[in-house]
Amino acid sequence: MSDVCIYEVGPRDGLQNEPETVSTDAKRELIARLASAGLRRIEVTSFVSPKWIPQLADGDALAASLPDAPGVRYSALVPNEKGYQRFRAAGGASVAAVFLSASETHNRKNVNCSIAEQLERIRPVALRAGADGAGLRAYVSTVCGCPYEGAVAVSAVAELTKRLFDLGATEVSLGDTIGIGVPRQVRDLVRAVSVVAPLEHIALHLHDTYGRALANVDAGFEAGVRTFDSSLAGLGGCPYAPGASGNVATEDVVDLFERSGVATGVDLDALVDTSIWLEDAVLGRALPGRVYRAVRGLREREAQRAEG
Ligand code: HMG
Ligand code: MG
Question: 238 an active-site residue?
Fold first, then answer.
């Protein structure tokens, strides 16, 4: 049993931002390792334009061959009806994740249309997901600030959250895309959103650009949120939010909660093993997650001592 849900987005939010494209086989192995570490919700890929995100162009093949993991729900990002057709044809993922931004400029840079137009693209996807019995996660991006426009009003985020639930979303994930938020802001945001939706249907999706994501997770938890998006070893970022770094690292969130007496159901050692494999055998570059780096360093020092 777990007290919180750690929603792993590394295979999607992480790998969409890697300079090199990872093979479909390595993605499948990553997902299998994440599932066996105890993660029960994993965002596996995107059905966006391969011209926009070439790193995830194999989404159809990957979704059609996902590891069989009982109790795990897979989601995939879906920007429009064409993406939803691909999501359904591939099978595998049972939750379609639609997305828009709370600021016009980021929305346009990310999906090439206005917020109002993106809501109209989401409407038929939501209808079809409802008819098909698929889950519908919805992201609102730039909730704590926009890389192009600066401040974003809490009321705009709450209003969009309400619109998304009215359209049929089963969960809304609030994205601090550029990691600019501070704990007080997260508390205010959660309070405003709780007026339009029960917090059990709200997730926080916090990037770590300014090193505050973990403090923001804690603030969100204290304010009543119980689902937190994170990415293995802090992989990730939005290619259309310049300078933004990865999500809060899954290892850091698991360690924070477990040491606070909040059960996550996730095995930290298995996550670290997976990050070592991803860093050494797949990406060939150092991953940023703090707890991951600390545990890896400890293990290496212990191994050296044991050798002599
Ligand atoms: P567009 O160019 O406006 O689309 O892109 P269009 O409808 O005019 O179509 C243009 C071409 O794209 C056509 O092909 C379509 O068939 C094709 P052509 O006739 O030129 O050969 N097309 C597609 N192909 C495959 N799959 C599709 C699809 N749709 C159209 N689904 C579009 C609009 C939304 C497709 C594009 O802007 C796009 O793909 N954007 C995605 C950007 C993205 O993935 N960003 C990162 C994810 S969001 C994120 O990271 C934030 C988040 O983590 C939360 C947070 O951190 O805040 C979620
Ligand atoms: Mg993100």
Answer: yes
